[in-house]
Queue: 4 jobs
Job 1
Amino acid sequence: MRVEKTIDFAYKGIVIASRMLDGLSSNGKLRKENLSAFCSGLILFSLATTVLFAPFPIFFSQELALPTNSVFAIYALNSGVGVVGYFLAGSRTSQATEKSHITKTEIFRSLLAFLLVAATGVPQYNAVLAAVILISMGFAYAFFLVFTLSLSMELIPAGKAGLFTGLVGIGSAGGNFIGPFLAHTSGFISVFLTAGTIFFLAYIVFKIST
């Protein structure tokens, strides 16, 4: 993939230079992906995900008063649609689409996190709305993971494949502390707003990296 990417970059440069020498306007972009921005976006996405999901079982059981078996069923559905998402994302992976799908997933999860605020203000529907949002996030996460793994093979230098797992681990470690802390000290609305904001920041960073 790295060889193909280098050839593609060189080809675009030759095409743009040829058009300029011929007096034609250049309508192409010659830009290498920013590895630092990609890594930062990966950490932010992992951080936002864990900030949101770490205290989520408590939100269901205490704030929404759902029984344990219902919480288990919701998480089982979340995992189930995630598996479906992996298969669908795998069949659609291509260099032309993976970058746009990553940013779409980021903004989608940001909107879902902000929508969770509504789940705290509509008592008669909040449990159903929160469950649907959680399940939708599982589906979106599958697409994000498949496409970022594919893109990381192009961006991360050979011999440093473990960097991907390390970056995800850094974000998860921070989120496991921040999420429960915010839930305990400021309430779950602050958790949802924080996660939504971090997801949006990750969206901006990934736009820069690609």
Job 2
Amino acid sequence: MGGCNHTSVGVLVEREGKVLLIERKKFPFGWAPPAGHIDDGEDYETAARRELKEEVGLIAGPLELLAEGRKEYQCSRGSTWHYWKLYKTSAEGELRVDTGEAKNFAWFAPGEIKNLKLDPVIGEWFKELGII
């Protein structure tokens, strides 16, 4: 893994009033939507689509930007902050978890999310977005 470019993206997939989250196997631990660093040469939307496909096997529909901004964030590559963009989308395909990235995945209603151990920065975003 290379150094950190201080950019991250996350993708919220909703179905029937529930949000798809994965239980992260790697640091930072906790439940989170599919998310990750922007690769060199990618824009945020391309990265969002790639992360969704890599982590849970789904193909993103149209992306709606929910939030963006800088968050203090200790990432696995050593950075202490990232500029984030969080998107919402519908998705198609067969749901499968990348076992290198996650222990599990599940669909959660908003009332259930507040009881989960969330990835810390995702917890901040969910509070700001009124999800928890």
Job 3
Amino acid sequence: MEQAQYQVLLGDRTVGPYDRRTIIGMRIRKALAGEHVLVGADGAQLTVDDLIRSRRPEPFNPNRSGSHSLVQATFTSGLVEVEGTALAIPRFRGEVETRVQSDVLRLAGRFRRAFGWKEDRVKIPLISIVHARVRNSLVDLWLRPGGGGSRLQRVTLELFTPESAGELVDWLPDAKPWPGGQSGPHLPVPYALLGAIAGVSVAVMLVLVVVLRHH
């Protein structure tokens, strides 16, 4: 359970309440901007960006392991896209805790499992991150498969500010700039776009059902 709930101030009215995860998920989907104002249960106001910059109350997720002395930097992020299956990365929703440790990049968050939510984390060896690219507040990472394959896996993270995106890449010593520039390799259909396509397909089917009933 989240410890804090926030109302979103929209003009002269408020909507919600929403917990931290939900608000950050809405920010990732661009449903909220960083400048939107939140109202806490005590009446205090802060922006979405203020909430993102604040540290999340402990504990964040189960199975936390490793010494805290190994943690070099911690970021609040969101998982945008994953291409490739060399490393199994859950489809994290909403807030993802991104921690740079001495030898791994650790992503922790929650994802849908059946009818509920499951929390998990994945550790990406820093040495396997061969390329990195910053696109405003987005960070693209290309990972080399552990089995020595030639096809790279791509992971895109939302860091919410260009400064945080650049700082994350600065902590990745083995990552070289992506040689393809801003164009990047061929990318699959993003998760969000897949959902939109599915929604359109359902709408088309409903229209066909209505038409057939009238005939």
Job 4
Amino acid sequence: MRPYYAQDGITLYHGDALEVLPELADESIPTIIGDPPYCSGGRQQAQARNTIEKANDRRDSWFLTDNMGTDSYIWWMRQFAGQFFRLGTLGAHLYCFTDWRQYSNVVTAIETKGWALRGVVVWDKAKGGAMGSFWRNNHEWIPVFSKGPPRALPNGGFFNTWRGSKPQDDDHATVKPAGLVQYLMRAASIGPILDPWAGSGTTLFAAKELRLPAIGIESVEAYCEQAARRLDQGVLELGMA
């Protein structure tokens, strides 16, 4: 399959990830960092309470995949987890963003395809990006899995919280801080990094800055275009607090 972008060890494919992933070689990926649609209803609730900015048509179009029920979501995530397990090297790390509503479903889907849950990293957004009007939600969870015994963390290990604000002025509705993604990459320590939901290219950019090879897949061409432009220009907000 021809890449949409390929330069300096960074490769981006435009297409359905479940169609692209089977084209990648078995046991070729030591690190996976994924930010799938949450399908938890949190975004819809926040919009109803006017606690996040009104989404434009471009953002809404991306969230056509964010409307599955629980059974469908678990089935869908299991398809990815099976591909990840085939692709992963022994000891591979898998980091998968989610929120408190979907945590158990994500863990169920991934564990039942052979991955072992090893912990959870918490992204503390401070006050930036908080949603809701009761107990305002200003954190997200990143369950950490391994294929077999986990590859050891460098420098004696890492702490499982990271504090930093959500990046601003990005056309993608769920963009993550590059600083957080780089924190996970430093823990994983080995590329190529696979991001099957590449969005506007945060993971690819973070890998490029760390001089790690990376592979991204994105289904929306507008985001592929944004990611390629960003990679060429070398501009991305780290999101550190």
